[in-house]
Amino acid sequence: MTALTESTTPTTRGGRSRWLALYTLCAGMLMIVLDVTVVNVALPAIQDDLGFTSSSLAWVVNSYLIAFGGLLLLAGRLGDLLGRRNIFTAGLVVFTIASVLCGLATSQEVLVIARFVQGVGGALTSAVILGMIVTLFPEPREQAKAIGVYAFVASAGGSIGLLAGGVLTQAINWHWIFFVNLPIGILTAVAGVRLIEKDKRLGSGGGTDVPGAVLITAALMLGVFTIVEPAAELGWTAGRTVLLGLLTVALLAGFVVREATAANPLVPLRIFRSRNLTGANLVQALSSSGMFGIFFLGSLYLQRVLGYDALEIGLAFLPTTLVMGLLSVKYSEKLVTRFGPRRPLIAGLALVTLGLVLFTQAPVGGSYVVHVLPVLTLLGLGGGIAFPALMGLAMADVPPEDAGLASGLIGTTAEVGAALGLAVLATLAATNTTGPTELQALTNGYHFAFAVAAAIVAAAVAIAYFLMRPART
């Protein structure tokens, strides 16, 4: 790597080992991120094969998101208590075994349960990665570059998943979108044990906050469930939706009270004294809501309105991956070093907002080059600039003993934001389908959802500008 200099590590071998460890962590993250979107492309094939109804098919995605978003925060704290490498490896094992079960599934029940277990493994694996990267690369310039690589994998992996899902589903069958995780999971787990040093259990001195863990896990799972099930199916004001929403709020309130009084809290409230960490989590939740929902709805626009097949959808999103990868890996570290993380974050989010606004103009007979490619290019530019800076800001003021917690927290807000954004935007698109023809009605619904997504990301821009502090380069 060109980033290795005489000042980075005592020996070249040591420097190489750290970068190899980074690539191992990113391989684990890529496998997790791919699985979120690779399934979206294969949903029609899964529905035909296993006989899902349109409403029950959503559980193939939602069961994963509920487990993943609900357990991330607990998994991050377990990394501090039990060792991050141990949790990372355990998560890979659980995720890989669950992937095989998903691929072997011949019934709806088995697939949904296996997807839930996949979410558990994904949470364990991904919750500790950012904390491990910060520990591996304490020097600011190297850390910015390493976080840029991680941010590219975490954000661009979604569009890679669309391409991989299209290729595997059309070339073989939908089972292989899960079977392909077996060799990747085994190789990554072995590489992790060999390349990642065993870390100290920094937070194990005062025990585990079991009541706090139960409260926050139950609140997050119930909250995501409320959005993806009764709110989407029955409406936001339905009695069941309101009741479950109030119960979620009560659980969250109980969690805050518990954390304020516990001797060794799961989430010490002092961590939110950092304006940058608090702002980063708010920005992460909002930007994930807009971006993840657009990947899903954008693929539906290409499929249902423009008539693209699974492979064509994956290829259509490839520019986003390429642009984001180039910026994240090659230029994000230079931008953060030159301007600090706050200004690139604001500029990147503004580009994402502009891209979403442009997507509201894509017509029924839209052209890919004129109406889709500029949008995906702007999303790639904005994501490639913003997300590495966001990760750096989120972890900048975090002490080593809380690195796993902060990593799990930023991951939790991303996944919960994605689940909420997907549910809200999909519901808005479905309930605003009015027009003289079926295609025009679908397009109008997508336009409304794209406009709401743009407003959500614009709110993230405002939070980044007014709440987050400039950091010294």
TrEMBL record:
Keywords: Cell membrane, Membrane, Transmembrane, Transmembrane helix, Transport
InterPro entries reported in the protein's UniProt record: EmrB-like, MFS, MFS_dom, MFS_trans_sf
Coiled coil residues, start to end: none
Subcellular location: Cell membrane
Domain Major facilitator superfamily (MFS) profile, chain residue ranges per copy: 21-472
Pfam families noted in UniProt: MFS_1
Transmembrane segments: 20-45, 57-75, 87-106, 112-137, 149-168, 174-196, 208-228, 234-257, 278-301, 313-332, 344-362, 368-391, 403-426, 446-468
Membrane topology: Multi-pass membrane protein
GO-annotated molecular function: transmembrane transporter activity
Annotated protein name in UniProt: DHA2 family efflux MFS transporter permease subunit
Organism: Kribbella sandramycini
